[in-house]
Design a protein that fits this description.
membrane, two-stranded antiparallel ribbon, rod-shaped, transmembrane, Reactive oxygen species modulator 1, Romo1/Mgr2, mainly alpha, transmembrane helix
């Protein structure tokens, strides 16, 4: 997200909600990719089962995407860098 300037001319970073959205989208996309990799591996190794390969792969992807997305959006709330106090 681009930074927006305020009336005083100081640059302001992304809001808390923007950080939350970015964390959820990043975690969700990583989770989908990981679900695709692990789900595909498990389907090849153990078979798809009664649901078929596409539904089973989709369940792996959605479950992994939701888990990673939730964890990443929660962790994006906490700052990783010390913020300098400018006065």
């Amino acid at each position: 997200m681009p930074s927006s300037s305020t009336a005083g001319g100081r640059m302001q970073g992304p809001s808390t909600f923007d950080k939350w959205k970015m964390g959820a989208m990043l975690g969700g996309s990583v989770g989908l990719i990981m679900g695709f990799i692990f789900g595909g591996f498990n389907i090849i190794r153990y078979g798809a089962g009664p649901n078929g390969p596409m539904r089973t792969l989709g369940q792996y992807m959605l479950g992994s995407g939701a888990t990673f997305g939730y964890a990443a959006q929660l962790s994006s709330r906490f700052p990783l860098q010390a913020q300098s106090a400018e006065t």
